[in-house]
Each structure stands twice: as structure tokens, then as C-alpha cells.
Amino acid sequence: MLGLALRLEEAEDGPFLRELYALTRAEEMAALPWDRAHKDAFLRMQFEAQTLHYHRAYPEAAFQIVLVNGCPAGRLYVHRGDDEIGLIDISLLPEYRRRGIGSELLRALLTEARRLGRRMTLHVERRNPALRLYERLGFRQLADEGLYLLMEWRADDVSGKLTIPTAGARSRREAPGNSGVAAVASRMLCSVGSSPNETRRKEGQA
Predict the structure, then answer these.
(1) For residue range 150-183, what is the model confidence (pLDDT) as tens digits?
(2) What does the pLDDT read at residue 190?
(3) Which of 15, 34, 152, 172 could form a disulfide with 38 if both were Cys (CB 3.0 to 4.6 A apart)?
(4) If 0-12 CB within 10 Å is exposed, 13-18 middle and 19+ buried, where does residue 68 land?
(5) Which residues of the chain carry a pLDDT beneath 50?
(6) What is the per-residue DSSP string for the chain?
């Protein structure tokens, strides 16, 4: 069973977050006839612009790193308002996708939204495969904004009961708002051989 936990971002996470951002756009970049230096410069500029926008638009949001067995596996950005929980961004390294991690994180947020009597919203690109996951979890389209769809989840729109794994002991650095996430965080270091993304990090590259 995966040891899944969240912690707040730190300044030292910059290189990991830049790599993660680049990997989420790898398919898009592969189709462009640019050299590596041009692509790297473009991605760096886009990452910095996105980061600045997120922090300016959502200064009170929880900007968190997703940990799997103590190793950085992705990011989860969530804004909690008076009447809604807004999913700003959820991204995982390729080797951690399709392993149920995103589903567990989302179900935890939906459980929180149900408990607090709030709706949950998110934006998703219309061609993003994650759209099917959101629909299975009970999100419905609220608005068509061109490239993106605005989706909404409300407890009274969903039949059945959401279930998530029982949370274990909470990590010392686990951020607030993670009560639904299984937080069996280990203190192990992501040494060579223990982290699936170690090789990709050495090679330099959602």
C-alpha cells in the first residue's frame, strides 16, 4: 500500500516543481520544432508566470507537495473559500500516474467538501484524460470557457457514499486540511534506487 501524504511547499522544492511542470507539457513540447535550449527557456518562463499568477490570485491557498513513501511525487494546490473548495492544480510525475493517487487525493477533498457543506470546483482542458475521472467522481460541467471546462461537484448531486482509505498517523509536517488523506509518511530519503524518478532527474527533465 502506498504511503501517501502532503506537506507544504518549501523554497528547496523549486527544481522539482520546474521539472514536474516540464513533464506535464512534454507531449506538447515534443511537437514543436524548437531546439532544447529554446524549449527550456520557454518552459522556465511559463512556469514562473504560472507560479506568480497562482500565488497572487490565491494568496491563502494551500500549495502542497504530494509525497509517496516520503518521496516527492507531485503537487496539489487547493483554495478553500467560504462556500467552496477550489482545486487549482493537481499534477503527478508520469511514474506515479494511473496508480490511484489522484483519485485518492480527490476523494479526500470531496469528503472534506461534503463534511463542510461546500461545493467543489475545478478547471480542466477539454482534451485532458482526467476529465473522465472527474465525471466518474460526480463533477458536472458548469461552463464552457473555450480551451477549459469549468466543472462543479455538489454533495446533493451525487448518489452513494464516498470512501477513502483510513488515515494513519499524521506526519509532523503535514499541512492542514489533509484529514482525508492517508498520511503514513516515512522519513526515508529518496536515494538512488528508491525513487522511481531518480533516473529522470539525472537526465534533466502535468
Answers:
(1) 999 998 876 444 443 333 333 333 444 443 443 3
(2) 57
(3) 34
(4) buried
(5) 1, 159-189, 191-206
(6) ---EEEEE--GGGHHHHHHHHHHHTHHHHHTS---HHHHHHHHHHHHHHHHHHHHHH-TTSEEEEEEETTEEEEEEEEEE-SSEEEEEEEEE-GGGTTSSHHHHHHHHHHHHHHHHT-EEEEEEETT-THHHHHHHTT-EEEEEETTEEEEEE-GGG--S----PPP-SPPTTPPTT-TTS----------TTT-TTHHHHHHT--
Q: Which cell is 85 given? A: 473548495
Domain boundaries, the chain: 4-203
Phi, psi dihedrals of residue 33, rounded to the nearest 5°: -85, 45
pTM: 0.77
| Contact residues for 167 (Cβ-Cβ < 8 A; gap 6+) | 179, 180, 181, 182, 183
For 4-203, CATH gives 3.40.630.30
77: enclosing H helix or E strand: strand 71-80
Q: Which letter, b or e, does each residue of 142-168 get, where b requires 16 or more Cβ atoms within 10 Å of its Cβ?
A: eeeeeeebebbbbbeeeeeebebbebe
C-alpha cell of 158? 451525487
Q: In whole angstroms, what is the distance from residue 67 CA to residue 73 CA?
A: 5
